[in-house]
Specification:
Length: about 160
């Protein structure tokens, strides 16, 4: 016997319920895609109607807009983003997250290090979640002298 609610949903895709794991996955992939310069995968993290606000700049809209905006990370030799979701609130097909982060951009022997805070709003998709809105604030910044690829330090060699 088929219930009335089941017959009403025949042929319709199931609605995904966003979990904390979905949100943490999106935040992790956000950082990973930026640092690997995988802009195609980065674009997939966002909805078509995305609105993003980064550190007081003009709003960036849409998937193409966000990719165009963040591609400037490729001007650095390398970047590392350390992002930690602090508060995740899931409500069925939507979620919000606040996360703190440190972003490092290295060019030559110079690094710019920034302390950041984000809030993001996510919506459910059949296979997880996507970001519909994101807001970033830069809290502090500093510059450092660095050495790239100091592998000998951990391979038993003498530090340079």
């Amino acid at each position: 016997m088929t219930s009335a609610s089941n017959t009403q949903n025949v042929g319709k895709p199931a609605v995904h319920v966003i979990t904390r794991d979905d949100v943490v996955d999106v935040v992790g992939r956000y950082a990973d895609c930026l640092d690997r310069r995988d802009f195609a995968a980065f674009q997939e993290l966002f909805t078509e109607d995305l609105v993003a606000e980064y550190a007081g700049g003009d709003p960036v809209t849409g998937r193409d807009g966000i990719v165009g905006f963040v591609q400037r990370v490729a001007l650095a030799d390398l970047t590392q983003h350390f992002l930690v979701p602090n508060v995740v609130e899931c409500d069925g097909a939507t979620a919000s997250v606040s996360f703190h982060g440190v972003a490092v951009a290295v060019t030559g022997e110079r690094a710019v290090v920034r302390g950041l805070t984000y809030t993001a709003q996510l919506v459910a998709r059949p296979d997880g979640a996507q970001i519909r809105g994101i807001q970033q604030q830069a809290l502090w910044s500093t510059e450092l002298d660095v050495k790239q690829n100091p592998g000998a330090l951990f391979a038993g060699g003498a530090p340079r």
